[in-house]
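Troubleshooting entry. The earlier prediction with nicotinamide-adenine-dinucleotide gave an output that would not parse, so I re-checked the input for stray whitespace and re-submitted. Clean input:
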Amino acid sequence: MARHVIWNGDTPVSTIVVGRNLANEFVERALSGSHRRVAILTQPPTESLGATYAKPLIAEGLSVTTMTLPDGEDAKQLSVVEDIYRFLNTSGFTRNDLIVGVGGGALTDVTGFVGATYLRGVPCMYVATTLIGAVDAAIGGKTAVNVDGKNLAGVFCHPEAVMIDVDTIDRLPENLKRDGAAEALKTGFIEDMRIVELYESDGLDSDLAEVIDRSVAVKVAVVSDDFTEQDRRAILNYGHTVGHAIESTTGRSHAESVAIGTVAAGAASEAEFSFTGAQRQKDVLASIGLPVEAVEDDPVAIRMQMNSDKKRDDDGLRMVLLRDFGIPELVHVTDATVRAAFAGIGLSLAVRDLDTEEDST
Ligand SMILES: NC(=O)c1ccc[n+]([C@@H]2O[C@H](COP(=O)([O-])OP(=O)(O)OC[C@H]3O[C@@H](n4cnc5c(N)ncnc54)[C@H](O)[C@@H]3O)[C@@H](O)[C@H]2O)c1
Ligand SMILES: [Zn+2]
């Protein structure tokens, strides 16, 4: 079992536990806060897991209630948040009680949102049950709900603990393992090549205990280094500038879009810094069945979407690029670099498509 701690300066704010058979550890942590009531939030695919976590708490004399939310992104709505507030209120929930979210990234996002806002903040814990949740969504304190735009409203909330049971992740269907691999590989490219080597040798059958442990270590270190999100955290957006634009213009999944965005960022890094690892990135992503080209997609729509992205500032578009594996840098990119990024994923941008001022207001 491995424990990782997120720090805000000298203060520990969250512990992430990665291992197997975590029931005892979970119960100990839930009991440590002298909570009387526990509300467990689940979604249909994690309902029975939620019951497994509820049992030992009930045996310890805690009053446990469970609420099953709509599945996936459908839970990330203000109307669902309101339903949860009512459920907690009806259960007599106080600020000394505990909310536990058992599920993937969508479920932990909404759990944290409620944890930060109900009674102006109640303690919460996450049990991350997908690979994306384990290596990304449950770590770092960001929460959100969707209002028109994805993740439009959110608030920081650091769960007291995040439990990642590798047995649960091992049993995930292949598509969820593949989605998580895109984010795990991202942490590999920017910081820890051992993660990349694991996927290169064993593909989706890689040892997920080691992948998760290493990937969590990278995210925890970056978040602790830049707790208030001034600048270093931006390196976690490697592959996401083009990735987000592809996600919102094509309807591809986040993981698929990020895989393509990573290939684009590799090509841009080659153009800007003579990075030599672009082909290696592309090969490992393709080997686990992630897309690495966007030939069918509309380059102009993607380029326009990039202008409205958060990574643009007054001096133009910024991308995270690699000087080498493990050496990421946030840079303002030239038009030539953007064209190279697009060429890397099979898209051709004419010079007239690069009117970067057009959509900037
Ligand atoms: N807060 C952050 O920093 C952050 C970072 C990355 C992603 N996210 C958010 O995370 C979400 C994506 O997370 P996700 O990929 O886990 O998707 P998800 O939470 O929608 O889960 C995908 C599906 O898998 C199901 N599921 C969960 N655990 C399962 C299990 N053990 N076995 C079988 N099915 C299971 C879910 O119920 C859902 O149907 C998005 O909403 C995204 O915005 C947040
Ligand atoms: Zn992502």
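This one parsed fine. The chain has two domains: 2-172, 232-354.
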